[in-house]
Amino acid sequence: MSLPFFVYGTLRPGERNHDLFLRGRTRSEEPGLLAGAVLYHGPGYPYAVETDGGTVSGDIVTALPGSYDALLVALDRLEDCVPGDPRSLYDRVAREVTAGDGRTVRAWVYVAGPAVAARLRTHGRRVEGGDWRARG
């Protein structure tokens, strides 16, 4: 299933991994919101953790035709995501996100894997407001 990606941290336009992984591979990038998640500080990058409340700010990124498969592999590798492996730092999940114009878009989101999410809920430091760019 070829879905856009919802990015909320170092892959956002202007952040360090955007140029390395997304520049020249995207058809569109637009602001978006992910409801039902909160953002935590990681070692240099954030983790979205699913919960009943909260909102995470990010961007909806649509790959160029012909770039999708390679981009999916590259982002899974970057996010240390091995589908089905509980030791992965992130899980790639399909979620509904809201675009800036109010449309609902189904997109891939990298959320904290189960072990990481449990640790963050207990000992993590939240990014207030859910926006990595506004972190203090």
TrEMBL record:
<dbReference type="InterPro" id="IPR013024">
    <property type="entry name" value="GGCT-like"/>
</dbReference>
<dbReference type="InterPro" id="IPR036568">
    <property type="entry name" value="GGCT-like_sf"/>
</dbReference>
<protein>
    <submittedName>
        <fullName>Gamma-glutamylcyclotransferase family protein</fullName>
    </submittedName>
</protein>
<dbReference type="InterPro" id="IPR009288">
    <property type="entry name" value="AIG2-like_dom"/>
</dbReference>
<dbReference type="Pfam" id="PF06094">
    <property type="entry name" value="GGACT"/>
</dbReference>
<feature type="domain" description="Gamma-glutamylcyclotransferase AIG2-like">
    <location>
        <begin position="5"/>
        <end position="133"/>
    </location>
</feature>
